Fold this protein.
Amino acid sequence: MVQTTQVLKEEQDMQFELTKEYAIKQDQLDPLASIRKQFYIPTQSNGEEHIYLCGNSLGLQPKTTRNYIDQELKDWEKYGVEGHFHAKRPWMPYHEFLTKSMAKIVGAKEEEVVVMNTLTVNLHLMMVSFYRPTKERYKILIESDAFPSDIYAVESQIKFHGFDVESGVIKAKPREGEVCLRTEDLLKIIEEQGDEIALIMLGGVNYYTGQYFNTKEITKAGHAKGCKVGFDMAHGAGNIKLQLHDDGPDFAVWCSYKYINSGPGSLAGCFVHERHKHNKSLPRFAGWWGHDKATRFNMRYDFSPIPGAEGWQLSNPPILSMAALKASLDIFDSVGMGALELKSRKLTAYMESLMEPLGEEVLSVITPKDNTQRGCQMSIQIKNANKEIYEKITKDGVIADWREPDVIRTAAVPLYNSFEDVYRFVDILKRHLN
Ligand SMILES: *Cc1c(COP(=O)(O)O)cnc(C)c1O
């Protein structure tokens, strides 16, 4: 860890030149530059490519996706139900073809990971197993500006168990005048109120600020107090090199349509730590796809879960979506999170340097400066909540997003964004600030 931090610090001090020539030069030197060609970049009505900085919301389509889906359509055409066994990638075990790549992306063992359902569904399934409130310990700790779906999920679970939502949700707030949460403040809440907290459930990377929490420290502190710990890694998976196994939370969930480029509404991932692998007594909402594979088709009524994350599956999965995900995961396998992380840090630091001279009076970057606390998302707070600026850059071909009340979120995604994209974005932004 010390070594990594050292390297990261050096990268953080990188010096950049703020010219377009320099950006173009960096693209020429970038070993990952050619990967961009494997993706469709949306084009404007004038035929020019958009500056697409929205991979944090919906990742772009790999050019191979269509072939992967076509393969399943062909196999369905050719085999009908027999495709479960005879398709090129048989449907029966299809989810298993995704596990290894997904486990690598989130830093987990294969038996700790499964692709199933969608994100909020998985969050509920995990809470069924890991939110087990008692009268003395029924609270859930979450960040105050968590993604709304996570808040709804958490609150509805508390209500479902018959507890009071008002006192049941502890929302960790940033300090007065600050936007990001400090780890030390989170640890203090856990230290002081941990005995009443049944579950710590945080967005591991906050969707609004892009802040990456110290998942290891938080998990350790939570476990020391007897809390269960889970993370929503929707903004972490495929963005930051996660280490879920070593960091040790009880569970994590994430979607694959953001940084993992699997297409709108596609499937989600779920991590259950190895320590729960053989625990059949954990309460869970069960379905036949989670049942022991050897006897699943005996159609008997005694549920015997597959050991590990697979045991939480409910249904036989949507193969067309899985095919799209497979196309994307094959790209991740060919590049690796290590190389992606290196480029990501450079690109993001470059964007930060370009933005620095623009001045605090018009905007401020609210994403942490410390690059161990962020991935490639860069959230830019616009003074006086002037949404016009966002509308103008959009007209000029930038695809980013506006999050109320006053933030433009951007993400320079290392798989398909270039240094030139970043340069052009800040250049357009600058033009509209005056
Ligand atoms: C994107 C996102 C969601 C969306 O949930 P779905 O179930 O996929 O619609 C939920 N939570 C977080 C933190 C997200 O970033």
Observations:
- Residues 118-120, 147, 149-150, 203, 207, 232, 234-235, 255 surround pyridoxal-5'-phosphate (CB under 6 Å).
- The CA atoms of residues 70 and 320 lie 9 Å apart.
- Residues 337-355 form the longest helix (19 residues).
